[in-house]
Design brief:
The complex is a heterodimer. By secondary structure, chain A is α/β, with parallel strands linked by helices. Chain A contains 12 helices and 9 strands. Chain B has 15 helices and 17 strands. Classes of the chains: A alpha/beta, B alpha+beta. Strand 5 of chain A pairs parallel with strand 10 of chain B, so a sheet runs across the interface.
Chain lengths: 315, 489
């Protein structure tokens, strides 16, 4: 039997549920793998797990928010033959990565400033919180399985990969980014028949009734599909909601937000550029009051914005 | 109270969602023992919500929790409705209600199958999980796994993305359901219902009718006589929208609130500098740590305590059976949570069956686009684990300036600490006599925690909880009942 461990960092549990939702297929995996650690699902203690000198497959979920998480992730990863980074928090930092631009004390004050009773009577020092990071910032995994949580394409690929690894003992000798190597837009069921997408302007979701057939961009609604890796079967779009980009960039290492902005810039009022002029385009773009939350929702921790800020503050 | 020494840690607790540990501290002669349930992550949604387009919040805050993402999504949608001053049309309202029931069904089944059932069925054993249950009771364990497959398929059909998916838009839903969706729902419910019958039969025979369970229910160690808080509608069980009711440990009604923004009259929140977690408490009683009178409990048992009846024939019969079996209301033994979840599973199936025949889900508008904006919105909902509150403020451009989120696990944090503190005395005695706790005591501690079904991911939307120093076995923390640290070493 091969040894499989699932190690959570700072998680929401969505990746746990996604794995548990393999349902009966989990039983297939159990034919080859012994789950030596998965605290949400398997009742085995960390101390026993840490006695193992090696494991075959480690699936890491969640971001890294504390010294302990980082230490544990590094320690366990060093004993694993195959390291899988599962979910956008682990791969790209995910939604909690939106706090990357703040100091931990600012994050703390956002909650502390709202409570009724705040006791400062002790001299007990709180631990120095570490800067939030993705698992991929501290360890180089073999397999990257993005998504929030990973979509059906990624989960199917991961399941097949784990079975194949169990049968052959082999894995591609490079970082394997799961999902299909194309944009989600490519096979979108709403892809306009025309070659060029035209956004009539920028419409926030509260301003429109979403058309359940038409390309969102052509409705003026921001959709991250053009620059998001195809990791799902267009599940949000089929539910009549634009892609928010949870699959991350099409290729590993690309700045997602810049790609999203570029795709909007190339589609916004392209049919009327000459009449609306720069001022008209700017007026529309100003409707986006939250560039970070729209374009970098899952990948801010990996962005150039983050890196530039780090350079600026000299950290 | 004098000095408290760290005695033992259970690190991490397994079979809970998210990462947590229990830290037990005691004074030098062991006469006073305190237990602290700590959640060990740090994500900070209150901060990262600031600056966001408010209409995007339902998609962002759903990532607080992968187990009850739809609860966060839906309650956030109610806040957004309040901010824009919109009233979702009947079709949209019913669609949201339907998805909320699916959330309850999904979360309860997941917990029951993977956590609750193995915990009780394998009582006394060192490993109590589905992996161990699978060879022991293959039919039951594989039935539990099958529910995942059916639910996953259903959710995919109805809402597309299973976790952190899209449904809510300001004033409505993104997509109205179709006849095809409801047919799929009907089919899935029949299948789930037959699986639940298998699980229920097993639970009835092996757990409810076992003398062991009866004995555990009589144990003071599992008892928590605090205040119950939950939604009600015409004194009936309600999960989506109703009056917020609080009752005391004798069943007397203390509060009924129709405007969720008035939660601040009932709920206080405290933050100590020895702990990053906030501890919500019953405001009129003032803050007293480890005191049942200051403790608000939410979740299935609290819901059952604040209502008179469950809608639906079978669910109500089961509800009455549970109450009769346990000696009447208010229900106070936390091991009853598993059974209560099972009753709510049956209720959800009945409610969904009714909805699957409701033609209003197929007709009319899906969204109200009128605007009557307000700078603040508050929403409340019954998530699977209990009352979930979201409270946002916005600027004129509808970007968020402040977000306050109190999750059920945060609410129950105080109750869990109080409950665990009670059992910790036994643990201290064992450690003193034989240098380590007995497996049974450790099991009890784990079972108390698993009964509450704490969702540590939910509770850590705020901050990393716990002092890193008390992970070492020589740390000493001294706290008094007001939560002040008196001494450390």
């Amino acid at each position: 039997m091969l040894k499989l461990a699932v190690l959570p960092g700072a998680i929401c549990g969505g990746c746990d549920v996604a794995l548990a939702s393999l349902g009966e297929r989990l039983a297939d995996l159990l034919r080859y793998y012994e789950i030596v650690y998965w605290p949400t699902v398997v009742d085995r203690k960390l101390t026993d797990f840490l006695k193992l000198s090696s494991i075959d497959v480690l699936v890491h979920m969640g971001g890294i928010s504390t010294e302990e998480e980082a230490k544990l992730a590094r320690e366990v990863s060093s004993r694993a033959r195959v390291k899988v980074s599962l979910g956008s928090c682990s791969v790209y930092g995910g939604i909690p990565g939106l706090n990357s631009l703040y100091k931990p004390i600012e994050v703390y004050e956002a909650i502390a400033s709202q409570v009724d009773v705040r006791s400062k009577n002790s001299d007990l020092e709180l631990p120095r919180p570490i800067e939030y990071s993705a698992y991929t910032d501290i360890v180089e995994p073999d397999v990257l399985a993005p998504g929030c949580p990973p979509g059906s394409i990624v989960l199917d690929q991961l399941f097949d990969l784990l079975l194949k690894y169990a049968e052959t003992g082999r894995l591609e000798p490079r970082i394997l980014l799961l999902g299909d190597p194309e944009s989600l837009c490519n096979k979108c069921p709403r892809n306009p028949k025309t070659t060029k997408i035209t956004m009539p302007g920028i419409r926030r979701i509260f301003e429109v009734k979403l058309d359940d057939n038409k390309c969102f961009l052509e409705q003026g609604v921001l959709c991250m599909g053009p620059a998001t890796r195809a990791i799902c079967d267009h599940s949000c779009i089929k539910a009549n909601y634009p892609c928010t980009g949870c699959g991350g960039p099409i290729e590993w290492g690309v700045d997602s937000g810049l790609s999203h902005m570029s795709s909007v810039a190339s589609a916004l009022m392209v049919d009327r550029e000459k009449s609306v002029l720069e001022a008209g385009l700017a007026r529309e773009l100003d409707k986006i009051r939250d560039v970070t939350g729209i374009f970098y929702r899952y990948t801010l921790r990996k962005s150039l914005t983050y890196k530039l800020r780090k350079l600026r503050v000299g950290e | 109270m004098s000095e408290y020494r760290l005695l033992s840690t259970l690190d991490p607790v397994t079979l809970v969602e998210g990462v947590a540990r229990v830290v037990i501290v005691t004074n030098s002669d062991g006469s006073d023992v305190r237990a602290l349930y700590q959640i060990m992550e740090f994500r900070g949604f209150e901060k990262l919500s600031v600056g966001r387009h408010v209409e995007e919040m339902p998609r962002i805050v759903s990532a607080i929790c992968g187990f009850c993402s739809w609860s966060h999504h839906l309650v956030s949608g109610k806040v957004v409705d309040a901010v824009f001053g919109r009233k979702p049309p009947v079709r949209a309202e019913l669609t949201r209600r339907l998805v909320n029931y699916i959330q309850i069904l999904d979360s309860h089944l997941l917990h029951f199958a993977f956590i609750g059932l193995p915990d009780l069925a394998l009582w006394g054993e060192s490993q109590r999980d589905i992996v161990k249950l699978l060879p022991r009771s293959p039919e039951v364990a594989s039935t539990a796994l099958k529910t995942r497959t059916v639910l996953k398929k259903l959710e995919k059909k109805l809402v597309g993305k299973i976790q952190h998916g899209p449904l809510v838009v300001p004033g409505g839903v993104a997509r109205g359901l179709t006849r095809d969706d409801l047919d799929e729902l009907d089919k899935a419910l029949k299948e789930i219902s037959s699986h639940v019958d298998v699980l229920y039969k097993y639970f009835d025979e092996k757990i409810i009718r076992s003398g062991h369970f009866k004995k555990l229910l009589e144990s003071e160690e599992f008892t928590m006589r605090a205040l119950s808080m939950g939604l009600v509608r015409n004194n009936l069980l309600e999960h989506y929208d109703g009056v917020l009711r609080v009752i005391d440990s004798k069943g007397r009604v203390l509060h009924e609130v129709t405007n969720p923004a008035q939660y601040t009259d009932i709920v206080g929140e405290a933050l100590f500098d020895w702990n990053y977690s906030t501890l919500p408490y019953y405001k009129p009683a003032g803050l007293k740590l480890f005191s049942e009178g200051s403790t608000l409990v939410v979740g299935p048992l609290a819901r059952f305590n604040v209502i008179d009846k469950v809608p639906g024939e079978r669910a109500n019969w089961e509800y009455k059976r549970l109450i009769e079996y346990s000696g009447g209301k208010p229900l106070s033994n936390v091991l009853l949570y598993h059974w209560a979840r099972l009753v709510e599973i049956i209720h959800s199936i009945e409610a969904l069956t009714d909805l699957s025949e409701d033609s209003r889900l197929l007709e009319g508008d899906t969204v109200d686009l009128t605007n009557s904006p307000s700078p603040r919105g508050v929403g409340v909902i019954e998530a699977p684990r209990g009352i979930l509150l979201h409270d946002y403020s916005v600027k004129d451009d509808f970007t968020v300036t402040r977000a306050r989120i109190i999750s059920p696990t945060t609410f129950n944090n105080m109750a869990m600490n109080t409950n665990l503190t009670r059992v910790s005395g036994r643990l201290v005695r064992e450690v003193k006599s034989s240098s380590k706790p007995s497996p049974e005591t450790v099991s009890i501690i784990e079972s108390i925690i698993r009964s509450y079904d704490p969702c540590n991911s939910c509770a850590t939307h705020c901050m990393r909880i716990g002092d890193v120093e008390i992970t070492t076995s020589f740390s000493i923390v001294v706290v008094n009942e007001d939560g002040e640290v008196l001494w450390r070493g």
